[in-house]
Amino acid sequence: MMASQVYFTSLRTGYHNSLLTKIQRLALAAGLEDVVRKGGLTAVKLHFGERGGTAFIRPVLVRPVVDALLQAGAKPFITDSGTLYVGSRGNAVDHLNTALLNGFAYPVVGAPLVIADGIDGLDEVAVPVNLKHFKDVMIASAIAHADSVVTLTHFKLHDAAGFGGAIKNIAMGAASKKGKMAQHSEVAPRIIYKKCIGCGLCLERCAHGAISIVERQAGIAAPSASAVKVVQIDRELCVGCAQCIHGCQQGALTIDWDKDLPKLMEKIAEYAVGAIKGKEKRSLFINFLTQISPACDCYPFSDAPIVGDIGITASRDPVAIDQACIDLLNKSPHLPSSCLKGEEHYPDKIRAIYPNLSWERQLIHAEEVGLGTREYELVEVEGGKK
Fold it and tell me: What pTM value is reported for the model?
């Protein structure tokens, strides 16, 4: 496979070359006008950030991409899907309120906000992929039905996948709740018995008859002496939709995390294939190497960045752009104010923070399933001039 082009622009600016101008120029150089259809619906996929987080892409930096899409005749909408965990983005109402709180309002970004998997995470499309882990993947309907996709990603590290780049953004972020569960887990949620009061709210949310209320067994911890009943999940009937997790007010249901992290990375790669299936030539990826935090934007906080701001990349190839971002990260000196301490040089900053993660597996499997190539040519787009 030939090397893919990855376009790069620094954050240097000047009077006649603002960062907003540079972002639009970068997107156009990478082929934005070629990936959209005139009058076609374009999903601008990004992460609105959790409440309390601060490292997500600034909404004002999204506007140049939206403007370029409008000028190309597309109909862009800003989108993300609901979270699997219980946070401030678990349903469409909370998600939209969080997006607005974080600044993603129509007057700022210039396009409407759409939660891709609907009000409760059930609006999904089964996309056939026939790969190692999945025959079909469950993609949020708004993204599945879009004519093209432009993925804007805040590149950062991740405590399970090693890094969160374009691949993870479009894979996990385009999946419905059922799709997220399939990537993270072996389907059925885990019960935290010491929190369960047997209230039955989760049972009301289950559409598959997989949950029942049973007598608490002796020796099982309880939140109070009066808690005599607990839930029980039939793993044969559970489809992993995660509705019960969001229905529990006690936090007694959680993801039964798959501890095989290389398998998680492979699943992410396969979901990325499904997310852009049929749109392989109508997809563009833009990664922001700014405020690169050591953990995901899904946390309600953002730790100090591990390196200084590097720049912005764009490519038609999600594998190449993520590889390029990792290389740019590892070439940058670490910040002693971050979790990387001392004067030591860290040639692999992901392993320096997560020594037990073989982060390469995400990229290797993505290449194996035909998502793209790790070989790339870095093309610098005109820099800022004073």
Answer: 0.88
